[in-house]
Please model this.
Amino acid sequence: MDKVSGILFFVGFLPYVWAILSKETVPSPVSWAIWASVDTLALVAMKKEKAATGQLTGAVIGAWTVFGLAMFFGKPTMGLVEWVSIVGALTGIVLWKTTGNAVTAIVSCQVAVFAGAIPTFCGAYANPAEENPIAWSIWLLSCICALFAIPKWDLANALQPINFTAIEVIMVTLVVFLPMFA
Model:
């Protein structure tokens, strides 16, 4: 299930990549660089704890792919979310270095990832048509697989899949289910 989750998470990026290439969406290279970096830091910390997930590997590959595209097709922005994500990642690095505990980096990165999703939630609520329901649905399916693949229910193994699942549930609710009742 872990590998299936990783493959699904990466596949979920394909509709988003298509939206970039067809100019339906204009990504921020700054945002994607930060999110890819935060996910990469979490992946390194999880590997240190022997808790790396296929899902996070798919997320890292997909995020760096989108970052590359955003460098050519995107528009740079630097708002509060980007600063919160940077602070979260830096806090994780500092805590990891000072305590020697990789779990602190995992927790810090996941807080930064969730904080970074808040504007996406707000945007999806205000205008769900600007989000790709297929991508979000595939990512949620990946999350369900990742939850079944958690080998040990501790922070190192479970926090990232739980956090991603919470984000995807909120987004699928906003872009798939709420528009059906609007």
Residues 155-181 form the longest helix (27 residues). The CA atoms of residues 48 and 102 lie 7 Å apart. The chain has one domain: 2-181.
